[in-house]
Amino acid sequence: MSTVVVVKKAGKVCIAADSLTSFGDLKLNSNYDAAHDKILRHDENYLGIVGSAAHQLVMESVFASKRVAERKTDIDFSSRLAIFETFRGLHPLLKEKYFLNAKDEDDDPYESTQIDALIANPFGIFGVHSLREVTEYKKFWAIGSGAEYALGAMFAVYDKKMSAREIAQVGVAAGAEFNNASSMPLSSYVVALQAVKSKKSKAKKAR
Prior knowledge:
Elements: E1 4-9, E2 12-17, E3 21-23, E4 26-28, E5 39-42, E6 45-50, H1 54-64, H2 67-70, H3 80-98, E7 116-121, E8 124-128, E9 134-137, E10 140-143, H4 147-157, H5 164-178, E11 187-192, H6 199-206
Antiparallel strand pairs: 1-2, 1-10, 2-11, 3-4, 5-6, 6-7, 7-8, 8-9
């Protein structure tokens, strides 16, 4: 599967991922895969997607396609609710144009988008899951088959004098070390958080 992590610290966010693609027992590592970077960029947003290898190419196509504009679906990852509304709007497009199989478990309350992803941007770090649940994280998180190792490693070093990128690298390295579906090298991207203006400063400006 993968190890994908996000970290927020000291005004910066970082997203990082391993580079191994696997097909059952068959491994495709960075020495053979010309497109081994698992992190997708759209404007100021970085997404790391786990699960089917088809997801990333589908999302690349969606972001580059005029179909999104034609359906008046805004791509907005600026908040928890905005991310939810974005994926809610994309769901019918994925079904109609990309032949998404939305069926998962019989007792699921909603159709599945089949995508688990982490997002890093100037507004923070977020996770979106198959039923379009969205979580905003305060410090760090990880997804993929190496997530448990990555979470433990990042927990152990988060309060040390390390940057968001360094903590993320520790997380992915732990996943690659102990999970057989993750492997180095890793890719990582850092974004500066947008400054949040206080209510007091807004009130002063209004006067």
